[in-house]
Amino acid sequence: MMRDAIPAEELLQKAHAVGQYYGFTPLSTLTSRTRGRAGGNAGPADIPAHVASDPVAETVAHFLKQCQNIDCAPSPRQPLFIWHTNIAPGRAAQKKALIQFHALGADRALADAVVIRALITLSRELFHEEPVLRINSMGDKETRARYARELGNFFRKRAHTLPEECVACAKKDALEAAELAILRECADDLPAPTEHLSDASRKRFEDLLEYLETTGTPYELARTLISRGSIWNDMCFELTVGERRVAWGSRYFELTRHFFPKAPFNATGAVLQIGSEGKIVKNVPATRLRFSFIHIGDEAKRLSIRLAEDFRKARVPLAQNIGIESLTEQLNLAERRNSPYLLIMGRKEALEGSAILRNRATQVETILPLAGLVERLKAFA
Fold it and tell me: Which domains does the chain carry?
Protein backbone atom coordinates (compact mmCIF):
# COMPACT_ATOMS: atom_id res chain seq x y z
CA MET A 1 0.00 0.00 0.00
CA MET A 2 1.34 3.44 -0.94
CA ARG A 3 2.57 5.54 1.96
CA ASP A 4 0.78 8.83 2.60
CA ALA A 5 3.70 10.29 4.55
CA ILE A 6 7.42 9.53 4.54
CA PRO A 7 10.02 10.47 7.17
CA ALA A 8 11.67 13.73 6.12
CA GLU A 9 15.17 12.37 6.66
CA GLU A 10 14.44 9.48 4.32
CA LEU A 11 13.18 11.90 1.68
CA LEU A 12 16.30 14.03 2.00
CA GLN A 13 18.69 11.10 1.95
CA LYS A 14 17.14 9.47 -1.12
CA ALA A 15 16.87 12.75 -3.03
CA HIS A 16 20.57 13.40 -2.36
CA ALA A 17 21.51 9.94 -3.66
CA VAL A 18 19.39 10.17 -6.81
CA GLY A 19 20.70 13.66 -7.52
CA GLN A 20 24.29 12.48 -7.21
CA TYR A 21 23.97 9.54 -9.59
CA TYR A 22 22.01 11.45 -12.23
CA GLY A 23 24.07 14.63 -12.13
CA PHE A 24 21.93 17.12 -10.18
CA THR A 25 23.52 19.55 -7.71
CA PRO A 26 21.51 20.60 -4.62
CA LEU A 27 20.46 24.23 -4.79
CA SER A 28 21.59 24.50 -1.16
CA THR A 29 25.15 23.72 -2.30
CA LEU A 30 25.08 26.47 -4.92
CA THR A 31 23.61 28.87 -2.34
CA SER A 32 26.43 28.18 0.12
CA ARG A 33 29.03 28.80 -2.59
CA THR A 34 27.59 32.23 -3.40
CA ARG A 35 26.74 33.31 0.15
CA GLY A 36 27.92 36.86 0.73
CA ARG A 37 27.94 37.74 -2.96
CA ALA A 38 25.41 40.24 -4.26
CA GLY A 39 23.05 38.95 -6.93
CA GLY A 40 23.94 40.27 -10.36
CA ASN A 41 20.74 39.68 -12.29
CA ALA A 42 18.39 42.66 -12.40
CA GLY A 43 15.21 40.68 -13.02
CA PRO A 44 11.91 41.47 -11.27
CA ALA A 45 11.60 40.52 -7.63
CA ASP A 46 7.97 39.46 -7.72
CA ILE A 47 6.36 36.08 -8.32
CA PRO A 48 4.01 36.39 -11.35
CA ALA A 49 0.40 36.66 -10.18
CA HIS A 50 -0.96 34.36 -12.88
CA VAL A 51 0.96 31.32 -11.58
CA ALA A 52 -1.07 31.22 -8.35
CA SER A 53 -3.73 29.00 -9.95
CA ASP A 54 -1.12 26.39 -10.89
CA PRO A 55 0.63 24.86 -7.82
CA VAL A 56 3.50 23.38 -9.86
CA ALA A 57 4.12 26.67 -11.68
CA GLU A 58 4.11 28.52 -8.35
CA THR A 59 6.65 26.06 -6.94
CA VAL A 60 8.90 26.45 -9.99
CA ALA A 61 8.57 30.25 -9.82
CA HIS A 62 9.79 30.28 -6.20
CA PHE A 63 12.70 28.03 -7.21
CA LEU A 64 13.70 30.39 -10.02
CA LYS A 65 13.39 33.34 -7.67
CA GLN A 66 15.93 31.67 -5.38
CA CYS A 67 18.22 31.07 -8.36
CA GLN A 68 17.89 34.73 -9.28
CA ASN A 69 18.73 35.82 -5.74
CA ILE A 70 22.08 34.03 -5.85
CA ASP A 71 22.73 34.94 -9.51
CA CYS A 72 22.60 31.27 -10.47
CA ALA A 73 21.94 30.89 -14.19
CA PRO A 74 23.27 28.59 -16.91
CA SER A 75 25.80 29.76 -19.46
CA PRO A 76 25.71 28.90 -23.18
CA ARG A 77 28.46 26.34 -22.52
CA GLN A 78 27.27 24.89 -19.24
CA PRO A 79 23.64 24.06 -18.44
CA LEU A 80 22.75 23.62 -14.78
CA PHE A 81 21.13 20.47 -13.43
CA ILE A 82 19.76 21.30 -9.98
CA TRP A 83 17.52 19.60 -7.43
CA HIS A 84 15.80 21.37 -4.59
CA THR A 85 13.52 20.60 -1.65
CA ASN A 86 11.68 22.45 1.08
CA ILE A 87 13.12 20.00 3.63
CA ALA A 88 16.05 21.68 5.40
CA PRO A 89 18.53 20.12 7.85
CA GLY A 90 18.24 21.60 11.31
CA ARG A 91 14.60 22.59 10.82
CA ALA A 92 11.30 20.90 11.53
CA ALA A 93 9.96 18.68 8.76
CA GLN A 94 7.39 20.18 6.43
CA LYS A 95 3.98 18.50 6.39
CA LYS A 96 3.99 18.69 2.57
CA ALA A 97 7.37 17.83 1.09
CA LEU A 98 8.30 19.13 -2.35
CA ILE A 99 11.26 17.76 -4.30
CA GLN A 100 12.17 19.36 -7.62
CA PHE A 101 14.56 18.43 -10.43
CA HIS A 102 15.46 21.06 -13.05
CA ALA A 103 17.63 21.21 -16.17
CA LEU A 104 18.34 24.89 -16.83
CA GLY A 105 19.68 26.00 -20.19
CA ALA A 106 19.60 22.52 -21.73
CA ASP A 107 17.83 22.48 -25.10
CA ARG A 108 18.17 18.87 -26.18
CA ALA A 109 15.74 16.06 -25.36
CA LEU A 110 18.55 14.40 -23.39
CA ALA A 111 17.83 16.85 -20.54
CA ASP A 112 14.15 15.88 -20.50
CA ALA A 113 15.09 12.19 -20.37
CA VAL A 114 17.49 12.72 -17.44
CA VAL A 115 14.89 14.66 -15.41
CA ILE A 116 12.29 11.95 -16.08
CA ARG A 117 14.65 9.10 -15.14
CA ALA A 118 15.68 10.83 -11.92
CA LEU A 119 12.03 11.31 -10.90
CA ILE A 120 11.17 7.70 -11.77
CA THR A 121 14.08 6.42 -9.67
CA LEU A 122 13.17 8.61 -6.71
CA SER A 123 9.48 7.63 -6.92
CA ARG A 124 10.38 3.95 -7.04
CA GLU A 125 12.58 4.33 -3.97
CA LEU A 126 10.02 6.28 -1.96
CA PHE A 127 6.85 4.35 -2.77
CA HIS A 128 8.31 0.85 -3.32
CA GLU A 129 6.18 0.50 -6.44
CA GLU A 130 6.86 0.96 -10.14
CA PRO A 131 5.56 4.39 -11.18
CA VAL A 132 3.72 4.81 -14.47
CA LEU A 133 5.07 7.50 -16.80
CA ARG A 134 2.42 9.26 -18.90
CA ILE A 135 3.72 11.75 -21.43
CA ASN A 136 2.43 14.17 -24.04
CA SER A 137 3.53 17.26 -25.96
CA MET A 138 1.62 20.52 -26.19
CA GLY A 139 4.17 21.95 -28.60
CA ASP A 140 5.59 25.44 -28.89
CA LYS A 141 3.72 28.77 -28.88
CA GLU A 142 2.71 28.34 -32.52
CA THR A 143 1.39 24.83 -31.87
CA ARG A 144 -0.56 25.82 -28.77
CA ALA A 145 -2.34 28.62 -30.64
CA ARG A 146 -3.25 26.23 -33.47
CA TYR A 147 -4.45 23.59 -31.01
CA ALA A 148 -6.55 26.12 -29.07
CA ARG A 149 -8.32 27.09 -32.33
CA GLU A 150 -8.96 23.43 -33.11
CA LEU A 151 -10.43 22.91 -29.65
CA GLY A 152 -12.68 25.95 -30.11
CA ASN A 153 -14.03 24.43 -33.32
CA PHE A 154 -14.49 21.09 -31.57
CA PHE A 155 -16.65 22.55 -28.78
CA ARG A 156 -18.73 24.64 -31.19
CA LYS A 157 -19.48 21.70 -33.48
CA ARG A 158 -20.42 19.42 -30.57
CA ALA A 159 -22.24 21.96 -28.43
CA HIS A 160 -25.44 19.89 -28.56
CA THR A 161 -23.79 16.68 -27.26
CA LEU A 162 -21.27 17.96 -24.70
CA PRO A 163 -22.04 19.13 -21.13
CA GLU A 164 -23.21 22.73 -21.10
CA GLU A 165 -20.50 23.75 -18.64
CA CYS A 166 -17.79 22.57 -21.07
CA VAL A 167 -19.29 24.51 -23.96
CA ALA A 168 -19.63 27.66 -21.84
CA CYS A 169 -16.06 27.32 -20.57
CA ALA A 170 -14.72 26.90 -24.12
CA LYS A 171 -15.95 30.40 -25.00
CA LYS A 172 -13.43 31.78 -22.48
CA ASP A 173 -10.60 29.21 -22.47
CA ALA A 174 -10.58 26.22 -24.83
CA LEU A 175 -7.76 24.48 -22.96
CA GLU A 176 -9.58 24.79 -19.64
CA ALA A 177 -12.69 23.42 -21.32
CA ALA A 178 -10.67 20.48 -22.60
CA GLU A 179 -9.48 19.71 -19.07
CA LEU A 180 -13.09 19.90 -17.86
CA ALA A 181 -14.23 17.54 -20.61
CA ILE A 182 -11.49 15.09 -19.63
CA LEU A 183 -12.57 15.31 -15.99
CA ARG A 184 -16.21 14.67 -17.00
CA GLU A 185 -15.06 11.69 -19.11
CA CYS A 186 -16.59 13.01 -22.30
CA ALA A 187 -13.37 13.60 -24.23
CA ASP A 188 -13.03 10.37 -26.23
CA ASP A 189 -12.89 12.23 -29.56
CA LEU A 190 -11.09 15.32 -28.24
CA PRO A 191 -8.39 16.47 -30.73
CA ALA A 192 -4.89 15.39 -29.68
CA PRO A 193 -2.25 18.14 -29.37
CA THR A 194 0.39 15.93 -30.99
CA GLU A 195 -1.62 16.05 -34.23
CA HIS A 196 -0.93 19.79 -34.47
CA LEU A 197 2.76 19.99 -33.54
CA SER A 198 5.09 22.25 -35.48
CA ASP A 199 8.02 20.55 -37.20
CA ALA A 200 10.41 21.67 -34.46
CA SER A 201 8.15 20.46 -31.65
CA ARG A 202 7.50 17.16 -33.39
CA LYS A 203 11.23 16.55 -33.80
CA ARG A 204 11.89 17.38 -30.14
CA PHE A 205 9.15 15.02 -28.96
CA GLU A 206 10.33 12.21 -31.23
CA ASP A 207 13.88 12.66 -29.91
CA LEU A 208 12.64 12.35 -26.34
CA LEU A 209 10.65 9.20 -27.08
CA GLU A 210 13.74 7.72 -28.73
CA TYR A 211 15.79 8.42 -25.58
CA LEU A 212 13.13 6.77 -23.43
CA GLU A 213 12.99 3.71 -25.66
CA THR A 214 16.75 3.27 -26.00
CA THR A 215 17.24 3.60 -22.24
CA GLY A 216 14.52 1.07 -21.45
CA THR A 217 12.15 3.60 -19.88
CA PRO A 218 8.51 2.42 -20.17
CA TYR A 219 6.01 5.14 -20.97
CA GLU A 220 2.42 5.70 -22.05
CA LEU A 221 1.40 8.29 -24.61
CA ALA A 222 -1.28 10.33 -22.85
CA ARG A 223 -3.29 12.34 -25.36
CA THR A 224 -5.46 13.76 -22.57
CA LEU A 225 -2.55 15.04 -20.48
CA ILE A 226 -2.73 18.81 -21.00
CA SER A 227 -0.59 21.68 -19.73
CA ARG A 228 -2.70 24.80 -19.68
CA GLY A 229 -1.58 28.43 -19.85
CA SER A 230 1.46 30.15 -21.32
CA ILE A 231 3.87 28.94 -18.64
CA TRP A 232 4.57 25.50 -20.11
CA ASN A 233 5.66 24.40 -23.57
CA ASP A 234 6.43 21.22 -25.48
CA MET A 235 6.77 18.04 -23.42
CA CYS A 236 4.72 17.49 -20.27
CA PHE A 237 4.54 14.34 -18.16
CA GLU A 238 3.20 12.89 -14.96
CA LEU A 239 4.17 9.97 -12.73
CA THR A 240 1.42 8.00 -11.05
CA VAL A 241 1.67 5.37 -8.36
CA GLY A 242 -1.50 3.38 -8.03
CA GLU A 243 -4.19 5.88 -8.96
CA ARG A 244 -2.36 8.88 -7.49
CA ARG A 245 -0.27 11.46 -9.33
CA VAL A 246 2.99 11.92 -7.42
CA ALA A 247 4.96 14.10 -9.83
CA TRP A 248 4.35 16.44 -12.75
CA GLY A 249 6.82 18.14 -15.09
CA SER A 250 7.21 20.05 -18.33
CA ARG A 251 9.52 22.18 -20.38
CA TYR A 252 9.22 25.92 -19.72
CA PHE A 253 10.59 29.22 -20.98
CA GLU A 254 8.30 32.10 -19.97
CA LEU A 255 9.16 31.82 -16.27
CA THR A 256 12.89 31.99 -16.96
CA ARG A 257 12.29 35.10 -19.08
CA HIS A 258 10.46 36.66 -16.13
CA PHE A 259 13.33 36.13 -13.68
CA PHE A 260 16.26 36.33 -16.13
CA PRO A 261 15.11 38.87 -18.75
CA LYS A 262 18.63 39.69 -19.97
CA ALA A 263 19.40 36.11 -20.93
CA PRO A 264 16.31 33.84 -20.81
CA PHE A 265 16.83 30.15 -21.36
CA ASN A 266 14.86 26.98 -21.99
CA ALA A 267 14.44 24.63 -19.07
CA THR A 268 12.81 21.39 -17.98
CA GLY A 269 11.48 20.93 -14.48
CA ALA A 270 9.41 18.54 -12.42
CA VAL A 271 7.98 18.57 -8.91
CA LEU A 272 7.28 15.56 -6.70
CA GLN A 273 4.95 16.09 -3.75
CA ILE A 274 4.36 13.81 -0.76
CA GLY A 275 3.43 14.16 2.89
CA SER A 276 6.40 14.11 5.26
CA GLU A 277 6.78 13.45 8.94
CA GLY A 278 9.39 13.80 11.65
CA LYS A 279 10.82 16.48 13.89
CA ILE A 280 14.15 18.22 13.40
CA VAL A 281 15.77 16.97 10.21
CA LYS A 282 19.38 15.80 10.41
CA ASN A 283 21.90 16.65 7.72
CA VAL A 284 22.87 14.06 5.10
CA PRO A 285 26.57 13.14 5.52
CA ALA A 286 28.73 14.04 2.52
CA THR A 287 29.77 11.08 0.38
CA ARG A 288 33.48 10.65 -0.30
CA LEU A 289 33.35 10.16 -4.07
CA ARG A 290 35.89 7.80 -5.60
CA PHE A 291 34.78 7.99 -9.24
CA SER A 292 33.69 10.67 -11.70
CA PHE A 293 32.00 9.24 -14.78
CA ILE A 294 32.79 11.18 -17.97
CA HIS A 295 30.89 10.40 -21.19
CA ILE A 296 31.04 11.76 -24.72
CA GLY A 297 28.42 11.20 -27.43
CA ASP A 298 24.84 9.98 -27.53
CA GLU A 299 25.73 6.29 -27.33
CA ALA A 300 27.66 6.86 -24.10
CA LYS A 301 24.95 9.15 -22.69
CA ARG A 302 22.27 6.53 -23.21
CA LEU A 303 24.39 3.90 -21.49
CA SER A 304 25.19 6.26 -18.61
CA ILE A 305 21.46 6.77 -17.96
CA ARG A 306 20.99 3.01 -17.69
CA LEU A 307 24.16 2.50 -15.62
CA ALA A 308 23.16 5.18 -13.09
CA GLU A 309 20.67 2.81 -11.50
CA ASP A 310 23.26 0.00 -11.23
CA PHE A 311 25.75 2.33 -9.56
CA ARG A 312 23.14 3.64 -7.15
CA LYS A 313 21.83 0.23 -6.12
CA ALA A 314 25.38 -1.01 -5.51
CA ARG A 315 26.27 2.24 -3.67
CA VAL A 316 29.37 2.76 -5.76
CA PRO A 317 30.77 6.16 -4.63
CA LEU A 318 30.40 7.73 -8.07
CA ALA A 319 29.02 10.96 -9.49
CA GLN A 320 28.35 12.03 -13.06
CA ASN A 321 26.84 14.85 -15.09
CA ILE A 322 24.75 13.04 -17.69
CA GLY A 323 23.06 16.11 -19.15
CA ILE A 324 26.27 18.10 -19.71
CA GLU A 325 27.66 17.33 -23.14
CA SER A 326 30.87 19.36 -23.08
CA LEU A 327 33.90 17.21 -22.25
CA THR A 328 35.73 20.25 -20.85
CA GLU A 329 32.88 21.13 -18.49
CA GLN A 330 32.56 17.54 -17.31
CA LEU A 331 36.29 17.46 -16.56
CA ASN A 332 36.05 20.78 -14.70
CA LEU A 333 33.28 19.41 -12.50
CA ALA A 334 35.25 16.20 -11.90
CA GLU A 335 38.24 18.31 -10.88
CA ARG A 336 36.07 20.16 -8.36
CA ARG A 337 34.92 16.85 -6.86
CA ASN A 338 38.57 15.73 -6.61
CA SER A 339 37.70 12.06 -7.01
CA PRO A 340 40.77 9.77 -7.36
CA TYR A 341 39.47 8.03 -10.50
CA LEU A 342 37.87 9.00 -13.78
CA LEU A 343 35.62 6.54 -15.58
CA ILE A 344 35.59 7.56 -19.24
CA MET A 345 33.32 6.38 -22.04
CA GLY A 346 33.22 7.71 -25.59
CA ARG A 347 31.41 6.47 -28.66
CA LYS A 348 34.05 3.79 -29.33
CA GLU A 349 33.85 2.41 -25.79
CA ALA A 350 30.04 2.51 -25.79
CA LEU A 351 29.85 0.49 -28.99
CA GLU A 352 32.46 -1.97 -27.72
CA GLY A 353 30.82 -2.32 -24.30
CA SER A 354 33.73 -1.00 -22.26
CA ALA A 355 34.93 1.99 -20.26
CA ILE A 356 38.34 3.43 -19.38
CA LEU A 357 39.31 3.78 -15.71
CA ARG A 358 41.99 6.44 -15.22
CA ASN A 359 43.92 6.91 -11.99
CA ARG A 360 44.21 10.71 -11.71
CA ALA A 361 47.37 10.52 -9.60
CA THR A 362 49.36 8.18 -11.87
CA GLN A 363 47.45 8.65 -15.17
CA VAL A 364 47.44 4.85 -15.52
CA GLU A 365 44.45 3.68 -17.56
CA THR A 366 42.66 0.34 -17.39
CA ILE A 367 40.03 -0.82 -19.87
CA LEU A 368 37.07 -2.41 -18.10
CA PRO A 369 34.21 -4.31 -19.78
CA LEU A 370 30.73 -3.07 -18.90
CA ALA A 371 29.73 -6.60 -17.97
CA GLY A 372 30.54 -6.80 -14.27
CA LEU A 373 31.64 -3.15 -14.18
CA VAL A 374 30.00 -2.40 -10.82
CA GLU A 375 31.84 -5.21 -9.03
CA ARG A 376 35.16 -4.21 -10.59
CA LEU A 377 34.73 -0.62 -9.43
CA LYS A 378 34.04 -1.82 -5.90
CA ALA A 379 37.53 -3.34 -5.91
CA PHE A 380 38.98 0.15 -6.52
CA ALA A 381 36.71 1.84 -3.98
Answer: 5-135+217-277 (3.30.930.10), 141-194 (no CATH), 291-380 (3.40.50.800)
